Multidrug transporter
Amino acid sequence: MKNSLKVHAALLVVALIYAANYSISKDVMPRYMGPFALVLLRVVGATVFFGVLSRLVAPHDRIQGRPDQLRAVACGVLGIGLNQLLFFSGLNLTSPINASLIQTIAPVVTVLASAVLLGEKLTLPRLLGIGLAASGAASIILSRGPVAAGGQDGLLGNVYILLNATAFGIYLVLVMPLMRKYHPFTVLARIFLVGAVLAVPAGWQQIQQPDYASFPASIWAAIAYMVICLTILAYLLNNWALKYASPSLLGAYIYLQPALAVLIAVALGKDALTWSKALQALLIFAGVFLVSRKPRQPAPAAVPLEPVQD
């Protein structure tokens, strides 16, 4: 019971961290700092943290063999480098609600990637779910509602978030074998290091542009939040919870994150919830629900049941 409460608490904290980020990031970008500069700070900070932590916790654990090395590079490129560069570029241009809803289709991409890469079967309900989620996401991407001021390209921002969700969905399929074979901190240290190879050159120019002396305390707090809470704490809690959480429980928190993001964005005046966005969210949620349901396995014939242990 205690462990179950801890899992719920960890997943709730992670959902709140990610949900709040959609609005907090908008305070920093683009007025004080560019999106690539934020990514540089996040990735370099996490690279140092997980590099040190992996040496302390699992000093003799190493990713070995050419296939695993290549897989780790792919995970670092997709799950860290491209994922974060695309996400912050997209969030810089689009609204918090649009970004949070579009990113929810990542589980749909994961199922499609599993079908292509692992040969998993696509059932009729899952195909229907993919269609529903895709129609909801396409409706958001193509909508031309008000976004951030300054003539920013909301359509381009929505496309960036879609590509971000796609990269992250494929990453989830690729990283699972590594997480099962090596210590999580060993994997995180390596993939963040690979991500830093992309993030540092991409953000080097933007990191030199801001007038840091003019930053108010609230902006420094927001940057610290994104580096410490969003990058390090969220990854730690998520990896711990994944050991104990069921797929259905993880699915429930997939829906909670955008709902919290909407509430936070509306409460802070960063965005407005309209009936069209509510309908788009309903399409995506229904699609993700159908996709996330595992196909029923045929019951084995003439196999005696064993007592279940609590």
Q: What stands out?
A: The chain has a mean pLDDT of 81.
